[in-house]
């Protein structure tokens, strides 16, 4: 596991965007696992900027982590709409190569099975993740047991509270979502989890504490052979000093970390 710390979310994002660009440039058919939420917004802005400078997405396939149950693709708070507004409509990716679970499916079990078949057919090269304040990744919420494959989840009160800010009428917010499961996420060849802000410091510390627990779904990432936590100054502030972790903090070592 690697930890990369940058003074600001903006600098951290440039680092991640460069890694994505390198993958897209290198691979003939790259598959990106994508996330929604506030954290990756800057990343998508940077990727759109790269596209305007010539980076093509025509050969890229994207697979998103999750979607609310009951929201149509064009609903302002749906994750399909989020992806269209922040990335898809600004780059040259063919719509047929972008995948988000269908929250309107009449048969949700069949939709989950369809998504699993899609994941099997398109192994993810690089999975981008945020982290919820309760440690969720995708919508894999803390529970006594975690599901491995795509499934319907009932959102926790904490997630409902955190995401209510996006809904003009929080009462109209869906209580359920479709999400990729933990094993599907862990099958990505490489994973980058981005966390920015002091309000994420506590959960980042819990995810990296060394204990793997279903109470903190992101802690399972410790078991992946190629995962990088990309943090800003706020999100890393509760981590034990670097020598204890055996990881490199390049900016800290160079005295550039404030
Ligand atoms: P955020 O959400 O990026 O809006 O903080 C992260 C998450 O819930 O996974």
Q: What does it look like?
A:
- The protein has helices at 9-26, 41-52, 79-86, 108-121, 157-163, 182-186, 201-207, 242-245, 250-253; strands at residues 2-6, 31-34, 61-64, 66-68, 98-99, 126-129, 151-154, 176-179, 190-195, 227-232.
- It has 258 residues and is an alpha/beta fold.
- The protein has one domain (10-245): 3-Layer(aba) Sandwich (Rossmann fold).
- The strands form two sheets. A seven-stranded parallel beta sheet has the order 1-10-9-6-2-3-5.
- Strand 2 (31-34), helix 2 (41-52) and strand 3 (61-64) form a beta-alpha-beta unit.
- Helix 1 crosses helix 2 (41-52).
- The protein starts with a strand and ends in a 5-residue tail after the last helix.
- Bound molecules: 2-phosphoglycolic acid (PGA).
- 2-phosphoglycolic acid is lined by residues 37-39, 130-132.
């Amino acid at each position: 596991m690697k930890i990369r710390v940058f003074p600001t979310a903006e600098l951290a994002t440039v680092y991640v965007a460069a890694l994505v660009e390198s993958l897209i440039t290198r691979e003939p058919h790259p598959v990106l696992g994508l996330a929604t939420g506030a954290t990756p917004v800057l990343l998508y802005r940077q990727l759109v900027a790269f596209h305007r400078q010539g980076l093509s997405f025509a050969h890229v396939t994207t697979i998103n982590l999750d979607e609310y149950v009951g929201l149509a693709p064009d609903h302002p708070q749906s994750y399909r709409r989020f992806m269209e507004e922040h990335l898809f409509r600004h780059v040259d990716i063919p719509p047929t190569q972008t995948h988000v679970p269908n929250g309107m499916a009449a048969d949700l079990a069949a939709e989950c099975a369809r998504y699993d078949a899609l994941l099997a057919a398109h192994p993810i090269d690089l999975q981008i993740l945020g982290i919820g304040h309760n440690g969720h990744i995708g919508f894999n919420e803390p529970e006594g047991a975690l599901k491995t494959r795509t499934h319907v989840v009932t959102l926790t009160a904490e997630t409902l509270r955190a995401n209510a800010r996006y809904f003009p009428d929080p009462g109209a917010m869906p209580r359920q979502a479709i999400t990729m499961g933990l094993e599907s996420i862990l099958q990505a060849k490489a994973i980058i989890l981005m966390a920015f802000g002091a309000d994420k410091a506590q959960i980042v510390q819990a995810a990296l504490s060394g204990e793997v627990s279903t109470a903190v779904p992101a802690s399972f990432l410790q078991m992946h052979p190629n995962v990088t936590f990309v943090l800003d100054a706020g999100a890393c502030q509760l981590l034990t000093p670097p020598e204890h972790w055996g990881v490199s903090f390049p900016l800290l070592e160079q005295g550039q970390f404030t």
